[in-house]
Each structure stands twice: as C-alpha cells, then as structure tokens.
User: What shape does this take?
Amino acid sequence: MSGMGRVGAGARATSFDVARRAGVSRASVSRAFSPGATISPALRERVLAAAAELGYRPNRIARGLNRQRSELVGLVVARLENPFRAAQVKVLTHALLAEGLRPILFEAEPEEPVEDKIELLLDYNVSGVIITSSMPPEQLCTECRERGVPLVAVDRGEKLRGVDHLDSDCEEGGRLACEILLEGGAERLVAARPVGPSHSMHRRVEAFVKLARAQGVPVEERPIGDYNYEGGRAFATALGDLAGGRARTGVFLPNDISALGCLDGLRHDPGMGSLSGLGLVGHDDIPQAGWASYRLTTIRQDLDFFASAAVELFRGRIAAPDQPARRVLVPVTLIRRETHGARP
Assistant: This one.
C-alpha cells in the first residue's frame, strides 16, 4: 500500500496523518487517546494501529492548553538534596501518575520567592500545584483559587484562604523523640533548633521541649546553622562543652540528615570521643538512617499516607472549590534502633 510507514525524517506525525491513515475523522483520533471517551474497541484499535505505524504520540501539553484543565500537576520543591525530600517527591510522583496525572517539577531554593514558577505553571493550565517550598503571596493564591487551580501546601506555616495543608504530625514527633531519649536513660536533654525558618522543625522542637519541661527534665535549645549533613557535623562540635558532665545527655535533631552529620562528628572529629555516650534521635527515617554504620533511632513519616492524602486534597478541591481550607496530619511512628541510649 502506498504511503505506508512513518512520516519522513525530521517530520512529526500529526493527528491529521493518523486520521488519514486510519480512514477516520480527527475527532475519532482524539477520542481514541482520551481516557473514558466514547469510542468502540474496534475503532480505537484501528486508530492506535495507525498511530503506531506513523510513530505518532499525542502532544499532551498542547491538548492541555486547548482545554480548561490539563493533566499536569506542578510540584514546587525545595531541598531536593535531602534524601527525605527526594523520597517525598518519588511517592508523590507515583501517586499522581496512578491517577492519570502528569507531574511537572520545579526546584526552588529554600525561602526563594516562587511567584515566577507558579505563574509559569498557570500558563500551562495545570490542574493544581503542590508546594514544599516557600508559599506564594496571597494575591497569587487568590488568582489560583479564582482560576480553579488547587494549591496544596506541605509543611508550611502560613494559612491562606482556599489553600489546603498537608503537615507532618510535628507535635507527636517531638513527643516521641523526648520519650525515647528519656527511656534510654537521658537525665538532661538538648534540642537543635534551626536558625532559619522551618515551620515543621520548629514545631517538633517546641513539642520536644514542652514535654521535657512537663516531666521536670532539664532541657535546652541550641541553634543549628543549617539542617543538612554539614550543619549536623558543626552542631556536634558545638556540643563540646558537654564533655565531662556527669548527667547522661540525650540530643534531638529534628531531621535525619543533620542527625547523621552529628553522629559522624561525634564519632570521628578530633576531641569528640568523650561525647560518644550521648543519646541521639533524628526525624524522617531516610534510608541512610537504617544503614549499619548509623542504626539511627528516629521518627518515621508515613509517606504512602502523605501521597494519597495529597491526591485526595487535590481532587477534593477540584470537586468543591469553595469549601473551607482543610488540614491533614501525616502520622508518625517511632523507629527504635541503637542511638537513643545515653551513657555517662
């Protein structure tokens, strides 16, 4: 048959080419590639066979621009170098794909203004935006609401009209960290409080300190410059004044990556050997926390719950755009390993 095969080199097959090859209308081609559209199985197979012969793939972005809502969901994410954030993005991406949605990722620096990124996403007619970085200004949130674009904020402190929130249960996380250190023999406690803004970590530290004081246990907060590996290692050095004390000490770092840095500092940096008996607990349960070289006692966030709740908030806002803002807490559980025991 003449005209068989793919279109010429450098040319991209179009829906018109597929319609001509299959002997159908362009509307039938569109229905064949639209989930849930009304089309007979035989006709769909005919269109798909013609598309395969021509090497045709539908342009989903272009289709979204021609509709009121695309299949795209924007993810605006900060601190992707943190293994926990990477794990969050992974499970969230899988959950969105399972719903027939297409995630599009923008990385933002911590506390970087995100207006330009969200405005670009709006240009693509995204179905919604999930934010783990700094919040956009209220005016942009209002524009998203008026355009029917749901916003889901993850572990953000700001409460804005029409923005749903998905937060870790920080109060429970801080409480569990305090309890396990006391169970491990700690007679005094230290909590690392981030110097910069971090809504979730500040809340964990507040819950930790509140319970310690309620139990009558001496507790102090010490600043940690940055809550990454290097920040944790520097924090270990700052604990040097605890050397020689008689009281058994337990330390809470409100995320795992800084806790691992602190552990390495205590174990390997010069002059830190006298502090090897500190009890230490982290938060998040990143994969590295379970490695044999660390065996970090920590608090696990339920990432499967997180992903399904994010999608549910997103879908619920589309179905009822004027409903009050909702807040869902992600459950946390204690992961008991080997670092929480405090020794003299």
